[in-house]
Amino acid sequence: MTAVHPALLGAGLGLVLGAGLLLVVYGNPIMRPRRLAQRIDPYLRRDRESALLAPREQRGRRWQVARRLLGPMVSRVIGLLERLTGGPEQLERRLRLAGRSTTVDTFRLEQVVMGLGAMAVAGVLAVAAVTLRGASPLLGLMIILIGGICGVLLRDYLLGIAVARRGRRMAREFPTVADLLALAVAAGESPVAAMERVATTSRGALPEEFATTVAEIRAGSTVSEALMSLGTRTPLDALGRFGEGVAVAIERGTPLAEVLRAQAQDARETAKRDLLETAGRREIYMLVPVVFFVLPLVIVFAIFPGLAVLEISL
């Protein structure tokens, strides 16, 4: 069994001592600033479970468990994450664009968990580098810190990938859904009934958004407001223009079936242009194996027989 390097042991003990002293200092009520909400909270709430002026904020179950286990440490880490990756309003919009039903606090908790997991993996690599390669303990601490940051940023990057994937999925579904709406409206149904029919008879990301739009209309929103908010919930720009066009057609009395057919045709033209652009990019990517793998082999096969003949003649 290999002994632990004294420098690494000293660095670890110093890190634990520094973290403990930092927690003691920041956990002191005298050093903890009181926010405005905390100062006016006794005058607004009758107890911890009720509020007079605003409803109690709903938290996710995982957030509540972690908050009770870790206490203020989670709040401080989540505040640091908000400063690094954006505020809660921007994150909430991205979660809505990705079609996720999780709350902002739950996503922040997932970032913390992924960061801790990355720090654990980086810690194993740092210990191996220090004990086996004789690296500096400071380098090991930097590896752990970089691993935690990479874990946090990886969760944010995966959210961006989910938003882009949902946008591509909606772009594929949009022409067909627009044609279905045009057929339903041309058959004599109202716009709300047509959207409800598409939402109940189809499956996919776009029918789910139409189901949400119908629910907003049933809850009291106007058709124009619900269609305008449809573009803000989805990453597809064409869907925002679709909502605006349909809302304007309803307000002005324009034949809605013709508007929907025009929207479907525009969506197909946009999809065709995107496909051509993707094909152009793929064509450039295909040059990489041709230039670096096929072309050198062709040159070798062309030159090697001549070199062999020269060697035989010499």
From TrEMBL:
Pfam name, any one: T2SSF
Keyword rRNA-binding: no
Residues passing through the membrane, by range: 6-26, 112-132, 138-164, 284-310
Organism the protein comes from: Brachybacterium phenoliresistens
Keyword Heme: no
Listed name of the protein: Pilus assembly protein TadB
Subcellular location: Cell membrane
Domain Type II secretion system protein GspF per the UniProt entry, residue ranges: 178-302
Protein's membrane topology: Multi-pass membrane protein
Alphabetized InterPro entries for the sequence: T2SS_GspF_dom (IPR018076)
GO annotation, cellular component aspect: plasma membrane
Keywords from the named record: Cell membrane, Membrane, Transmembrane, Transmembrane helix
